[in-house]
Specification:
Elements: H1 3-29, H2 36-48, H3 59-79, H4 85-99, H5 103-120, H6 125-135, H7 141-148, H8 152-175
Helix pairs in contact: 1-2, 1-3, 2-3, 3-6, 5-8, 6-8, 7-8
């Protein structure tokens, strides 16, 4: 599929369903109306990544399915309090800069941090949120379960998945030259 065909598909989707999609998002975001534009953009970016738009039988239903997934991920990120992660990122950047005064070492460190960041996106949103709440906020499994609307044992399973994933990621990174 050509870029032009993709753009035409997205333009048509935005013109046909854009207004209703923004209302759909606004109604479900309760107090976060400023994020509606960002989420709308994320939804359309996900549609842009699809190789064959012709295979979608019902574009409107597909659009709202993608929107529901984006909303779900958004709510999990908010539950994980991403604003508390920003200082952590600053500390990591400062630490990497202090530890690696050589530009080549600094670049390598930044590339590794980027790989870790991208790799963590492969975690399920709940496992990621659980890891953040447990490690960054110091919440108990019961508190995490309450925030996510699951039991404490289920929160424990999410945490174990995330930790196992991180362990494997670190092993893979150490094995890399």
């Amino acid at each position: 599929m050509t870029q032009e065909t993709k753009r035409a598909f997205l333009t048509d989707m935005e013109q046909t369903h854009g207004r209703q999609l923004r209302r759909f998002l606004s109604a479900r975001m309760r107090g976060a109306a400023a994020d509606v534009a960002d989420l709308t953009q994320e939804i359309f970016l996900r549609l842009l990544r699809i190789e064959n738009h012709e295979t979608i039988r019902n574009p409107q239903a597909y659009l709202y399915t993608v929107a529901s997934h984006v909303l779900h991920q958004y709510s999990l990120r908010r539950a994980a309090a991403p604003e508390k992660m920003a200082p952590l990122q600053v500390v990591l950047e400062l630490q990497s800069a202090a530890m690696a005064p050589d530009p080549a070492d600094q670049l390598e460190t930044e590339q590794r941090l980027e790989k870790v960041s991208r790799a963590l996106e492969a975690l399920s949103p709940r496992a990621y949120a659980t890891l953040v709440m447990y490690r960054c906020e110091g919440l108990t499994l019961q508190q995490i379960g309450d925030r996510l609307g699951v039991s404490a044992p289920m929160a424990r399973k999410y945490l174990l998945r995330a930790i196992s994933f991180c362990d494997q990621l670190l092993e893979d990174m150490e094995a890399m030259p």
